[in-house]
């Protein structure tokens, strides 16, 4: 008999490995993830390095998320992530 749980877990690990290969830059290769580096710099404008995020309220983090998700990005044709998401959602 086939162990379905083991098969699903194995498939998930394969998918998970492929996703991480796409989105994590190699150490000391920051040019591979310009948008990630840019976003990190933006976060540091609000919360300096070594900020203890366990002391930051969920509301403050949600406000920062809203700020970033409604801000136009060059890589998205100066549309916000929210606009792009809604466009794809309505097209589906």
TrEMBL record:
Stored PANTHER family: TRANSPOSASE, TRANSPOSASE INSI FOR INSERTION SEQUENCE ELEMENT IS30A-RELATED
Organism: Candidatus Erwinia dacicola
GO cellular component: cytosol
InterPro entries the UniProt entry points to: RNaseH-like_sf, RNaseH_sf, Transposase-Integrase
Stated name of the protein: Transposase
GO molecular function: nucleic acid binding; transposase activity
A GO biological process held by the record: transposition
